[in-house]
Automatic annotation (TrEMBL):
This is MBL fold metallo-hydrolase. It comes from the Bacteria. Residues 18-199 form the Metallo-beta-lactamase domain. InterPro entries: Metallo-B-lactamas, RibonucZ/Hydroxyglut_hydro. PANTHER family: METALLO-HYDROLASE YHFI-RELATED, ZINC PHOSPHODIESTERASE ELAC PROTEIN 1. GO terms for molecular function: 3'-tRNA processing endoribonuclease activity. It holds the Pfam family Lactamase_B_2.
Length: 250
């Protein structure tokens, strides 16, 4: 499968990148993991506006879902006069209402569901297109999920936003590529059950035996290189920082 980093900035966009959004493709099926601020524009560098087959929203913080409002416009008010079919949107409970409120004036309270088929996330395993997906609740102030994507014996895991948690270890166990958040700086920010620092991300990757670690969701005010060095201090496999536009063959 192919992983494209559409956006990887943590909490708010940077000059170099939109917020969280990752495109996973296999056998012509396109699954988007998160659609944070600026992601919809960047996505169109990689695929057509209507080429997505499904969307996963890890949680309902704006930096992971707010461009769904713009995507609603694109799907609901199609320029050719048509309306797009509803594509599956896997998201925590309350996503439809949250996005409808953010949009502010949808034609009706159920307009979002005409173009998005909202499916409530739980800790679960299921098939979607060519993928086997596993989702698990992670540790964040709002209901949040990480996800493991498997295809033909290859696997990747995406942490979403999380503090240290066992669920993340299970999702990442033995994956070929671990896309893990590292928002905080080791020794500087120490707020439990919110985000990981580079060292904690590296420790998760080491404990899970991940084949490759890609650190993401690093806010513009955080020194990514320091977080990468902290991760490398505890994880000996290949590790790097996510960059907008980066493509990985998993
Ligand atoms: Zn976030
Ligand atoms: Zn968050």
């Amino acid at each position: 499968m192919k992983l494209t980093v559409v956006g990887c900035s943590g909490s708010f966009p940077s000059a170099e990148s939109a917020c969280s959004s990752y495109l996973v493709e296999a056998d012509g099926f396109r699954l988007l993991l998160d659609m944070g601020n600026g992601a919809l524009g960047e996505l169109q560098r990689h695929i057509g506006l209507y080429d997505l087959d499904a969307i996963f929203l890890s949680h309902l913080h704006a930096d992971h879902c707010i461009d769904m409002c713009g995507y609603f416009v694109a799907r609901y008010y199609r320029h050719d006069g048509g309306r797009c079919d509803a594509i599956p949107v896997y998201a925590p409970e309350g996503a439809e209402q949250r996005l409808t409120t953010a949009y502010a004036d949808t034609p009706s309270p159920s307009s979002m569901s005409e173009v998005f088929d909202f499916r409530t996330l739980t800790t679960d395993s299921f098939e979607l297109g060519p993928f086997t997906l596993r989702t698990a609740k992670v540790c964040h102030p709002v209901e949040a999920y990480g996800i493991r994507v498997e295809h033909e014996g290859r696997s990747l895991a995406y942490s979403g936003d999380t503090g240290v948690c066992d669920a993340l270890h299970d999702l990442a166990d033995g994956v070929d590529l671990f896309l893990c958040e590292a928002s905080f700086t080791h020794g500087k920010e120490d707020i439990p059950e919110l985000h990981l620092n580079g060292r904690e991300a590296g420790a998760h990757a080491a404990r899970a035996g991940a084949g490759r670690l890609v650190l993401t969701h690093i806010p513009p005010w955080t020194d990514g290189e320091r977080n990468l060095a902290d991760a490398r201090a505890v994880y000996t496999g290949p590790a790097e920082l996510a960059r907008a536009g980066a493509v990985y063959e998993v």
